[in-house]
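Q: What residues go here?
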C-alpha cells in the first residue's frame, strides 16, 4: 500500500501530491517542499519499502500507478501532482487517469531515450573515486544500506556545491528501499510513449529543470517541449532541485498554481 503524509495548508487551496524520485527513495528527500504549505495543502507519497512503509511484494509501475490513482481520486477539491525525477512519471500518469487533477509539475524528470543517453554520458564524465567505490559496494552486496551509501556519493551530480554535505547526509540516512529500485529501475524505458500521450492533456503543466547536475538542461528542455510543458531552469541547482533551491522552486509553483500566493 501507499503511505501518505499530510500537511495542512490554507482551507481554500489546491492539494499538492508530492512524489519522490528513485525508484526506492523516500518522501523525506523532498520535504524541503514543506514551505509550500503556506499556499497549498500537501500530501507526500511513500511507495512500499520507503519511510517505514513495508515492502510486501514486487509491484510494476502500472500497479503502483493504479494504487496512486485510487488515492488521488478521493482527495477533495483541485489536485496538482508534483513529481521529482522518477516521481514525474507517476505525476504524469496520474493526470491521465484521475479527473480531479488540474495541473502537473515535473522536476528534472528524464522521459525519453535521448535524455537518458545524455544522463549516461554525463554520469560517466563526472564519476568520482568515492562514487565508483560506493557503486562497487552496492553491486557486490545490494541492501538498503549500500543503496543509500551509493546515492549519497553522487555528489555534485545530485546537489549544488553549497548543499553537498547536507545532501549527502540526507541520502545516507534516507529510509530507502533497494528492492523497489531493483524491481522498478527498468520501467523508465517505457516513458517516452507516456510523454507523447501526455502532450494531448489539457491541464496546466510546469517543468522545473536543474541548472548544472546529473541531467543536461538542453536534454530536459527537449523533453519538456515534447510534453507541452512550460519550462523554467532553477538557477544554481543540481538534480535535487527542491533541496538546493527550495524557495525558488516554491515561488515557481505558486506563480503557476496558487490561489493566494504565500
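A:
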Amino acid at each position: 500500500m501507499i503511505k501518505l503524509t499530510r500537511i495542512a495548508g490554507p482551507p481554500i487551496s489546491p492539494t499538492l501530491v508530492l512524489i519522490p524520485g528513485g525508484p526506492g527513495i523516500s518522501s523525506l528527500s523532498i520535504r524541503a517542499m514543506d514551505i509550500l504549505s503556506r499556499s497549498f495543502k500537501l500530501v507526500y507519497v511513500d511507495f512500499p519499502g520507503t519511510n517505514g512503509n513495508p515492502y510486501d511484494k514486487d509491484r510494476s509501475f502500472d500497479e503502483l500507478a493504479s494504487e496512486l490513482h485510487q488515492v488521488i481520486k478521493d482527495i477533495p477539491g483541485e489536485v496538482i501532482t508534483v513529481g521529482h525525477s522518477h516521481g514525474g512519471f507517476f505525476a504524469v500518469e496520474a493526470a491521465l487517469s484521475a479527473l480531479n487533477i488540474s495541473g502537473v509539475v515535473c522536476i528534472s524528470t528524464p522521459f525519453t531515450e535521448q535524455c537518458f543517453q545524455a544522463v549516461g554520458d554525463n554520469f560517466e564524465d563526472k564519476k568520482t573515486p568515492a562514487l565508483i567505490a560506493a557503486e562497487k559496494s552496492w553491486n557486490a552486496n545490494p541492501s538498503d544500506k549500500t543503496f543509500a551509501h551509493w546515492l549519497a556519493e553522487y555528489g555534485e551530480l545530485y546537489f549544488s556545491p553549497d548543499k553537498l554535505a547536507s545532501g549527502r547526509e540526507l541520502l545516507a540516512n534516507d529510509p530507502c528501499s533497494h528492492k523497489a529500485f531493483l524491481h522498478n529501475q527498468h520501467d523508465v524505458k517505457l516513458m517516452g510513449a507516456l510523454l507523447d500521450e501526455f502532450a494531448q492533456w489539457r491541464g496546466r503543466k510546469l517543468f522545473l529543470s536543474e541548472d548544472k547536475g546529473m541531467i543536461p538542461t538542453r536534454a530536459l528542455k527537449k523533453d519538456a517541449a515534447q510534453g507541452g510543458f512550460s519550462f523554467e531552469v532553477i538557477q544554481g541547482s543540481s538534480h535535487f532541485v527542491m533541496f538546493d533551491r527550495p524557495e525558488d522552486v516554491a515561488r515557481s509553483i505558486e506563480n503557476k498554481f496558487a490561489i493566494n500566493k504565500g
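A: Context that may help when evaluating the design: The CA atoms of residues 74 and 100 lie 9 Å apart. The two ends are 33 Å apart (CA to CA).
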